[in-house]
Amino acid sequence: MSMTTTTEEELSAILDAVRDFAASELAPHAAEWDEHGTFPRDTLRRAGELGLGGIYVAEDVGGAAFSRSDAAAIFEALAYADPTVTAYMTIHNMVGWMIDTFGNDAQRHEWLPQLTSMSIFGAYCLTEPGAGSDAAAITTSAIRAGDEYVLTGVKQFISGAGEAGVYVVMARTGEPGARGITAFLVPADSTGLSFGTNEKKMGWKAQPTRQVIMDEVRVPASNVLGEVGGGFKIAMRALNGGRINIAACSLGGAAWALDKAASYVKERFTFGEPLAARSTVQFTLADMATELRAARALVREAARAIDDGSADAAMLCAMAKRFATDTGFKVANDALQLHGGYGYLSEYGIEKVVRDLRVHQILEGTNEIMRVIIGREVLEGKR
Asked: Which of 76, 189, 276, 356 satisfies CB 3.0 to 4.6 Å to 248 for a cystine?
């Protein structure tokens, strides 16, 4: 896939359009969607009309073909308005990228025009009830039966489950471990495919999270994505980009929280002076801004490493994900603290961002697993 090269001026214009969309279509409704657990299908389809359904998918199937660096900036701008809906959009974009990168011509042209326009949604099915961080231990089976595969198993914590039109499912076709895993495209109308109840979550309430249950789901052998036995490689490459995406969402949500905190402390008076006059408050804001900027720099470096195909891309993505999601949550939590009791009230919006950003430290590989990846690379002489 060739990337579209954008100048600084072009990227600035793109981000202005994205911010306008986010300010008009996401921000005014984020609290209501959160309160009622509303999945904003129509808003997402309008995002697709703007080109946000296939940000780094090739142009011949409706994508924008932007670089990962540009995509990270776009996701950060969207997440400033609503991290929850933006996080789902990153997953949808990841599904599109997987099909674009590893799919054959027929698969690309069947699914990607629908995904890039967001006329249908995508979901990624890797995690299982008994296999979270140890992705190579999945037990969902895919047994060859003539010209079909029969899939049986349960996937856990799947964003968009029940709403998506196509599911990229990792299933075991061979030996235990990573080399026995194959990726499949499973259409939403497949017989034997069903979903659990929508999980009641701390945050991310505006996107559905359900089990994906496969009871002898039959798909054509032509629905294998990539090569038989190559699914784990696809999953890991997808997660590198997914880690950058979720890190960018943390940056956007935290930047909003920082701005809200800076405004609040100038307006809030205690003991006859504004909070902003107190050095302790200024120090807190200084640390928040500094750490957020450092996280943004690391995310951008990791995104460039993916664009350039750098050998240390996986390590940098792990570093960026760990640092940016930890920093994002801390900045949001500090913003809540600066608001005092008001930060705990839903009407100020801070507590929502705290709840939404907390899960970023868990998904796309927990931050403990990120440290394992980084530590192994350091021991091999990389740093």
From this structure: 76
